[in-house]
Amino acid sequence: MIGWLNHIAIAVPDLASAAAKYHDLLGAKVSAPQALPEHGVTVVFVDTGNSKVELLEPLGDGSPIAKFLEANPDGGMHHICFEVPDIHAAARRLVSEGARVLGDGLPKTGAHGRPVLFLHPKDFTGTLIELEEVAPEKA
Q1: Contact status, residue 72 vs residue 26, Cβ threshold 8 Å
Q2: Which among 81, 87, 93, 96 has the fewest CB atoms less than 10 Å away?
C-alpha cells in the first residue's frame, strides 16, 4: 500500500536557525518557509535528492508542535511521511484493520498541496505516520 518515503519531519524550536544549519553546514538546498495555519506549523523542506527532511516550527501556542517541543525542548523527530496513490482507499483499509486516523478522519491539504492524513503513533510502534496522496505513477 505505501509507496516512497516522502519526508522525515523534525520539530525545531527555531526554524531559521535549523534551516541555516542544514544549508550552511550540510550544503543542502532549503526551501523558503511556508506557513500552514490548518496544521499549526511553519515548515521548510530540505532537499536530500532522494527524499526530503521537513523542519517544523510551531505556528501559535495551540500548535501540536508547541506541545511536542514542551516535552522535547531541543526538538526531535516528529513523524515520517509515506506516499500513497489513493488516500481514501488507504484510510478505509487501515481503519478496517484497526488503525486510527487522527483528527476527524478526513484528509487535509498538506504542504505540497496534496491530501494528507495522520495515523495514531500507538498503532505504529510509537511513530506518528503521515500519508500523502500522490499520482499513482509515482507512488
Answers
A1: no
A2: 96
